[in-house]
Design a protein that fits this description.
6 helices, two-stranded antiparallel ribbon, 183 residues, mainly alpha, 50% helix
């Protein structure tokens, strides 16, 4: 494990959130879709379940997606993560739950707006990536027809393709067919 368990869970949640409008169109068009995403990733606390909350999560998605675009600019990424930490008023404390008995950080009150809780946890996970000197693990899919993001959690940073559109398999099949055609 490269990062703490909760950091890796949050990084996966960030990747799915950012990709939710990059591959097959808008995947979070309404509250039921957002609820399903939140439940899949174990987000707890206040949910207003209104259009304003959905818009705020969409804005967070765009904001976090810009951090991926800045992954090759450490200072720019740090500035964006610091701004997100500040805007969410992150205030960390250690806690654990029966369903997650390991100690982990909460960064906002369960009563804070959803985007604020999500943004604080996402910013802290990205801060962990930066502190570890691992920004190069934030990648855009290498398939020429894909703009999805990925968090490369492989041991040797060899991941190139997202898992949203079967990109790795498609690229490997295309390379195989090209090699066979040359024979």
């Amino acid at each position: 494990m490269l990062f703490s368990h909760d950091t890796e869970l949050t990084l996966r949640a960030i990747g799915e959130l950012v990709n939710s409008d990059r591959v097959g169109g808008e995947e979070l068009p309404d509250m039921p879709a957002l609820d399903a995403y939140l439940d899949r990733h174990g987000w707890t606390g206040r949910r207003d379940r209104d259009d304003a909350e959905l818009r705020a999560v969409h804005q967070l998605r765009e904001r976090v997606g810009r951090i991926w675009a800045a992954a090759d600019d450490e200072v720019g990424a740090v500035d964006q993560v610091n701004a997100l930490l500040s805007d969410t008023r992150a205030a960390p404390w250690l806690t654990r739950h029966p369903e997650m008995p390991e100690w982990h950080l909460h960064l906002a009150s369960v009563h804070d707006p959803l985007w604020q809780r999500m943004g604080a946890e996402m910013a802290m996970a990205l801060a962990d990536v930066i502190r570890a000197g691992e920004l190069r693990r934030l990648k855009v899919c290498a398939a020429p027809d894909c703009t999805a993001v990925l968090v490369d959690l492989s041991r040797n940073r060899s991941g190139k393709f997202c898992d949203t559109g079967n990109c790795g398999n498609r690229q490997h099949v295309a390379a195989y067919r090209e090699r066979r055609a040359k024979k």
